[in-house]
Every structure is written in C-alpha cells, then in structure tokens.
Amino acid sequence: MSVELNHTIVFARNNRESAEFLAGILGLEAGAEWGPFVPVATANGVALDFASVPGGQPIATQHYAFLVSDAEFDAAFRRIEEAGLTYYADPFMRQPGEINHHHGGRGVYFQDPVGHGMELLTRPYGSLSDS
C-alpha cells in the first residue's frame, strides 16, 4: 500500500461553524458530527476533521492549501467576495484585495473564523517557473 494522507484535525472554537465556513467557500458539504469531529471531505479522499477547543485555550493557527480547478476557483472566489472576507495575494497578508498569478495559475489566501490561513491555488507549486 502506498502512503496517503487520510485526514487531519483542524482545531476550532466551534467545530460546526468552522467546518460549514470552509465547506461553504469550497462548495463542499460539512459531514455529520461524529465524536468531537465535523468532517469536510475533499475530492482526493482527505478529510479535514474540525474539533472544538474549549474557550480560552489557545489555538495554534495552521495553513491549509487547496488545489482547485479554474471553475472552482471562480466559484470560491465569488463566495469569498460575497461573504465580504478580506483576501490576499500572499501568505503574509501584505497584499490585501489581490490574488496572485504564480505558477501560471491563480491563488488567493484568506482566514477562517479561528485565523487559520486558507489558500486556494489553481496550479501546484513548481508548475512553471516561480513568477
């Protein structure tokens, strides 16, 4: 058997709220809660299992990147704009209100309700020369 990433846990203040937020942007479904998790499954079989952390406990923010088609990018970007989210062309949040065109595609960064960095990109890194 080859090694595959099956799932990862995404810590949240409210597991349902955060799962539905991301699922809504990506055009996916948040699954039924099982145990402490609310899953969001991606097309390649990797699930993001959102787990609530009790209030007051710190949550280390993470970065999650999603490779999407051009049509999926357009739809998700429209949802980002409709939600009034601040978005950026870079992971350091120095270029607000812009998207990037790295690797011959498009990319955008935004934050989820906890502050996790979310990235959408239409071409994987290294597709073309870094531009």
How would you describe this structure to a colleague?
The chain is globular, with a radius of gyration of 15 Å. It has 2 helices and 7 strands. The N and C termini lie far apart (36 Å). It has 2 domains: 1-53, 2-Layer Sandwich (Signal recognition particle alu RNA binding heterodimer, srp9/1), CATH 3.30.720.120; 61-131, 2,3-Dihydroxybiphenyl 1,2-Dioxygenase, domain 1 (Roll). The protein has helices at residues 15-26, 70-82; strands at residues 7-12, 37-41, 47-52, 63-67, 87-88, 107-111, 117-121. The model has no long low-confidence stretch (mean pLDDT 95). The chain has 131 residues and is of the alpha/beta class. Helix content is 19%, strand content 26%. The strands form 2 sheets. A 4-stranded mixed sheet has the order 4-7-6-5, with helices on one face.
CATH level 1 name of the largest domain: Alpha Beta
> What is the number of domains?
2
Helix-strand makeup class: alpha/beta
* Rounded mean pLDDT score: 95
Ends distance: 36 Å
How much of the sequence is in beta strands?
A: 25-35%
Shape annotation = globular
Q: Taking Cα atoms only, what radius of gyration do you get, to the nearest Å? A: 15 Å
**Count the helices. How many?**
2
Order of helices and strands: EHEEEHEEE
CATH homologous superfamily annotation of the largest domain? 2,3-Dihydroxybiphenyl 1,2-Dioxygenase, domain 1
Under the CATH scheme, the architecture of the largest domain is Roll
Question: Taking strands numbered 1, 2, ... along the chain, how are they ordered across the largest sheet?
Answer: 4-7-6-5
CATH topology call of the largest domain: 2,3-Dihydroxybiphenyl 1,2-Dioxygenase, domain 1
What is the number of strand segments? Answer: 7
- What profile does the largest beta sheet have? 4 strands, mixed
Protein name: Glyoxalase
Domain VOC: 4-123
InterPro entries: Glyas_Bleomycin-R_OHBP_Dase, Glyas_Fos-R_dOase_dom, VOC_core
